[in-house]
User: Which sequence fits this backbone?
């Protein structure tokens, strides 16, 4: 079967090329080499499995590029070797061929499992809000690792949309109604008449006309040099800056600032927690019953408004429980409780600013849970102490109530975490199994 | 990459300010924007979070004028500094022509400077760009803090950490006071435009 031999040779060349350098061309040659072999080997199931595995690996490597798992790149020639041996080797019987292929399939399945696990690579420090500790339990860092990968990809998607909008020059459709006016009409997208220039460093050269133009444009002549009074970092309305606060875009504001917020919409429902921010701040200055009541009320309102926003509800629940504690036991660890309130709010607001709250709140949940548990332990031990010292002053029921809370919250976290991790896992698996 | 459009007589160049978070990239652009607001006819777009951190990027288009009849359009971008937004940083680097690396002179930021530069190098590689070839200027920012008695790294230390191999132009400056902010920008545009010289003559 000479055409088969030819096709095998092509496949071998393609695989060698990938080992040498991963690029789209190399992957394309691989795919092109696999196709004819599928026909050639029709009916020979174990061999077709080899081809399928190679195809899948190729797809995966194409997507993952440099980030591809090294085992995936090594598995490719290994599967090929098995295939080659089965096709060209002297008279292997069916059983031997199956055994040969099974080894490769096992390796492939192992790799799949590896890929579904978080990467060990330390190259990517996890970075939810500062001072992140180990997270809640041993699973924390694992989940957070997953989150990091996820975030990178989600950011890619959302950002791509916005970025593409920006760089789609006048050769594409008119910018959507919400395209920012400040965006240049023609941006670096190659269009008709464009010639690309890839700038290099030419240390010795001088381009006098360019330097003259720069001196001209950036000269101080005729400038209103009142700059000193204005902090350049400050936002001042006449400063000509379109400030887009992703956390706060409301419908009317979208019209005004005209930035396409498709990506922001994708971020999930816009939630305004500014009232909580204000109340928490006020509580930190001076705790009063009316403020605590206001906090409880606002939390209730938000809970009613966003009944499906499970991630946020979890935050709210925790904030509410600290609030309740303050209401019943202001004396006990007051400072600590105010502090945790602020911290929880910060985490909530930070998490709401990330792009896909439902997914991205996960890491923040874990951090918040850790904070909550630490706080709770301190509260419980402080209360126990006072209960022992002056049992009549403190209601033992309050202690029990506080004690019970983390269990409820914990099980809710576990459920949300489980769901989110499941969906992440599915996505990762899809990435490597899609053909 | 930059573009020269002979029909429209226009050159487009993309400059990205890169560097560790809170190093002063946005402040650089703010300064330019404020100082030249009468000449910069467009608006700066800043996408921020509440904490005043750059979430996506800042974007400031500046048309500096004409060379031999060609309009020179410069687009200035900054990248977000937070570690987790590397995907965004990578995307902003897409098609970059020239880079300003804004390092923070504060002693405690030494590690972040080095890490950020290292990451920039890697991110450039994913766009098939070589840090040793692309026009690049370093800015050692926040020199004004010296007066406040805050421990700063010396210029020699900065050079040793960041510029030993690169050997690119570097400026000690302050984005807050504006010291060397304009000089930095002029230098990077000038370095980038050199590659267009032949096309423009
Ligand atoms: N003292 C001083 N502060 C600066 C300077 N440049 C920036 N900052 C401050 O550093 C913080 C971060 O600056 P920003 O421009 O947002 O940093 P970015 O994350 O690199 O964009 C802000 O509070 C700035 O006001 C500077 O030259 N001197
Ligand atoms: Mg910034």
Assistant:
């Amino acid at each position: 079967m000479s055409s088969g031999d030819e096709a095998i040779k092509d496949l071998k060349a393609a695989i060698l090329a990938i080992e040498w350098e991963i690029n789209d061309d190399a992957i394309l040659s691989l795919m092109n080499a696999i196709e004819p072999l599928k026909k050639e080997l029709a009916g020979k199931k174990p061999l077709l499995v080899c081809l399928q595995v190679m195809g899948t690996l190729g797809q995966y490597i194409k997507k993952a590029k440099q980030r591809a798992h090294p085992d995936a790149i090594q598995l490719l020639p290994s599967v090929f070797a098995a295939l080659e041996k089965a096709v060209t080797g002297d008279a292997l019987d069916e059983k031997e061929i199956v055994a040969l292929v099974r080894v490769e399939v096992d390796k492939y399945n192992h790799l799949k499992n590896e890929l579904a696990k978080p990467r060990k690579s330390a190259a990517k420090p996890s970075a939810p809000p500062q001072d992140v500790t180990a997270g809640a339990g041993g699973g924390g860092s694992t989940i957070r690792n997953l989150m990091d990968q996820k975030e990178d990809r989600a950011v890619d998607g959302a950002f791509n949309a916005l970025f593409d909008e920006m760089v789609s020059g006048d050769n594409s459709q008119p910018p959507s109604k919400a395209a920012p006016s400040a965006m240049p009409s023609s941006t670096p997208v190659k269009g008709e008449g464009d010639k690309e220039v890839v700038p290099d460093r030419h240390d010795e050269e001088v381009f006098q006309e360019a330097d003259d133009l720069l001196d001209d444009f950036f000269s101080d002549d005729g400038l209103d040099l009142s700059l000193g009074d204005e902090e350049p970092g400050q936002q001042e309305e006449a400063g000509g800056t379109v400030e887009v606060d992703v956390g706060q875009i409301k419908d009317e504001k979208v019209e005004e600032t005209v930035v396409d917020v498709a990506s922001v919409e994708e971020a999930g429902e816009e939630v305004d927690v500014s009232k909580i921010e204000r109340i928490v701040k006020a509580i930190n200055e001076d705790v009063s019953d009316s403020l605590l009541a206001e906090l409880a009320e606002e939390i209730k309102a938000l809970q009613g408004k966003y009944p499906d926003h499970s991630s946020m509800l979890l935050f709210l629940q925790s904030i509410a429980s600290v609030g309740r504690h303050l209401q019943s036991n202001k004396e006990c660890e007051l400072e600590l409780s105010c502090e945790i309130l602020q911290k929880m709010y910060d985490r909530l607001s930070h998490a709401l600013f990330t792009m896909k709250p439902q997914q991205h709140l996960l890491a923040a949940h874990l951090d918040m849970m850790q904070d909550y548990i630490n706080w709770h332990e301190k509260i419980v031990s402080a209360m126990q102490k006072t209960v022992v010292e002056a049992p009549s002053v403190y209601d033992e029921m309050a202690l029990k109530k506080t004690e019970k809370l983390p269990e409820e919250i914990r099980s809710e976290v576990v459920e949300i975490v489980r769901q989110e991790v499941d969906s992440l896992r599915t996505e990762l698996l899809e990435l490597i199994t899609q053909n | 990459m930059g573009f020269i459009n002979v029909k429209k007589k226009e050159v487009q160049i993309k400059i990205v300010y890169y560097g560790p978070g809170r190093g002063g990239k946005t402040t650089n652009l703010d300064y330019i924007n404020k100082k030249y607001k009468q000449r910069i006819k467009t608006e700066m777009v800043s996408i921020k979070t509440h904490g005043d951190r750059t979430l996506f990027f800042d974007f400031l288009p500046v048309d500096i004028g004409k060379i031999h009849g060609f309009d020179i359009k410069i687009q200035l971008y900054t990248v977000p500094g937070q570690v987790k937004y590397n995907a965004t940083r990578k995307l902003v680097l897409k098609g970059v022509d020239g880079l300003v690396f804004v390092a923070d002179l504060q002693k405690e930021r030494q590690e972040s400077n080095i890490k950020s530069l290292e990451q920039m190098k890697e991110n450039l590689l994913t766009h098939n760009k070589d840090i040793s070839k692309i026009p690049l200027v370093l800015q050692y920012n926040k020199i004004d803090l010296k007066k406040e008695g805050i421990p700063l790294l010396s210029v020699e230390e900065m050079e040793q950490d960041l510029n030993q191999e690169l050997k690119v132009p570097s400026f000690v400056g302050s984005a807050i006071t504006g010291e060397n902010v304009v000089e930095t920008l002029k230098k990077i545009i000038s370095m980038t435009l050199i590659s267009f010289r032949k096309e423009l003559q």
